[in-house]
Amino acid sequence: MVDALNIATFKQKLLCGELDIVEHTEMILQEAEKLNPEYHYFNVISKDLARMQAKELQREIQTSLKLKDKKKLQQLQQKKLLGVPISVKDAICVKGVESTAGSRILKGYLPPFNATVISRSINEGGIIIGKTSQDEFGFGGFNVNVGLDYQVPKNPFDKNRTTGGSSGGGSGFVQLTKYTHASLTESTGGSIVEPAAFCGVVGLCPTYGRVSRYGLMDFANSLDKIGATGKATADVAVLLQSIAGFDQRNATTTDIPVEDYPSFVGKPIKGLKIGVVSVAFGEGTDSFVAERVWKGIKALESEGASYEEVNLELPITMGVPTYYLIATSEASTNLAKYCGLRYGKHEPLEGSFNEYFTLVRSKNLGEEAKRRIMLGTFARMAGYRDACYLKALKVRTKMIEEYKKLFTKYDVLMTPTAPIIAPKFDEIAKLTPLQHYMIDIFTVGPNIAGLPHISVPVGKQNGMPVGALAIADHFKESTLIKLGSVLEKTCGAGKCGCE
Fold first, then answer.
1. Which neighbouring-strand residues pair with 275?
2. Mean pLDDT across the chain, nearest whole number?
3. Does residue 144 surpass a pLDDT of 90?
4. What pLDDT does 491 receive?
């Protein structure tokens, strides 16, 4: 686990001719291929696409340097992701690259278009190196609910432990790669920050509507958000800057101007007001996790921030049931199209529609996908819709109101990202479905409310990373980037006694 160049430094070395894009791309592709049989971070490694993109960029740079074309060099300088390898969660469509959301039911699907985040990444000079492992359709917090025929990714610090989910492949590879790289990840209830915490990297989930969902295979439309995972806050700031903004192809995006996120890296946090959610540090949270996050908060205080303990009731006590009612209801609707007629894997056309529909989904969906479809269908049924789904939507509104009230007094709220370090696979195997769902207890709240949040490493316990979660008000990603970069400086690599 070697320190790689950050994106800004990497880009400067490329433009000076000190680094070769083609060579760097080839090295990270070889690394991915070497690691994958052991760690299972990629469902697909897009070697041909990456090599083609790298050669095109290299040709532009060499021609500009040779001709001393200042105008062209300035244009290349403005590309935020120039030459940076980008891995992509499998649920995000990449043109001509198999994209399955980690499910057998979509095996062989080659999208005829790029998701907006892919188009924007490529336009900024990013090189797409592959599709990363995930829980099937994003259904999980430990990345063990992979689709049929897929492999479970392994934690980069201990192969007997989980990466976290559902964006486990991206977070694991970010940690393990020796090269400059960032990952496009996605969250519905914590799937960016949770694996980031378990793998010891930085994960930033933006405000709902800040980044286009066009080209994302839906889990839950009102909850899904595409974000960024990287080795450092500076890198996720650059990637978020590259993909954020209004998209006419996605009606839920906003035209609120995108801030210059990288400019907030390293800015002082003097006067920043932190609300520490006290219940998150009590019963149910491992004491060493609580201790390390508290040390991180104290480190922020030493940099000029202030904190007070606060009560956050509904998001903690009702977050998990509210989230699972809303998310499964929307998921059961979204996955209905995968019936083997127009979309999804086909089977021999035999029997009635119901028989064929049942056959296709029984053979090609995993156990957790089936469970969530059944839960969501039940919650939307006549006689239960008012008591379950609509009531959950009302609780969501109350939760947003509770967050908004706290944000009138505090700039950020902080908790541990997860109450435990990454568990071992044999421990996960003993959990009930409800116990699986409870791993999301601190992350479902901001996801339900559509609030931006970031997980930053604050040390280790027995060699395993611990993450601190910071939540800000809507469209205040810049505040999180400031906090994250300061937390890295003051609490990284044992600087605040967190190891």
1. 308, 413
2. 96
3. yes
4. 79
Task: Tell me which architecture the domain covering 7-264 has in CATH.
Answer: Alpha-Beta Complex (3.90)
Q: Is residue 145 within 8 Å of residue 437, measured between CB atoms?
A: no
Positions annotated as catalytic residues are 89, 166, 191
400 CB neighbour count, 10 Å cutoff: 18
Residue showing tokens 């919650």: 379
Maximum CA extent, the chain: 72
Please give the structure tokens belonging to residue 231: 């080795």
The arithmetic mean of pLDDT across residues 129-149, rounded, is 98
Identify the band that residue 66 occupies on the pLDDT scale cut at 50, 70 and 90: confident
Q: In this structure, what token pair is assigned to residue 182?
A: 């960032």
In this prediction the pTM is 0.97
| H or E segment and range at residue 323 | helix 319-334
CA–CA distance from 21 to each of 12, 148, 446 (Å)? 12, 36, 38
DSSP 39-84: H--EEEE-HHHHHHHHHHHHHHHHHHHHHT-HHHHHHHHT-TTTT-
Do residues 478 and 262 make contact, with C-beta atoms less than 8 angstroms apart? Answer: no
Least confident of 42-51, 72-81, 196-205, 469-478: 72-81
CB atoms near residue 110 (< 10 Å): 11
For 197, what's the count of Cα atoms within 13 Å in the CB-facing half-sphere? 36
CB 408: neighbour CB atoms within 10 A? 7
Burial zone of 320 (CB within 10 Å; 0-12 exposed, 13-18 middle, 19+ buried): buried
Mean pLDDT of 66-90: 93
Average pLDDT of span 111-119: 98
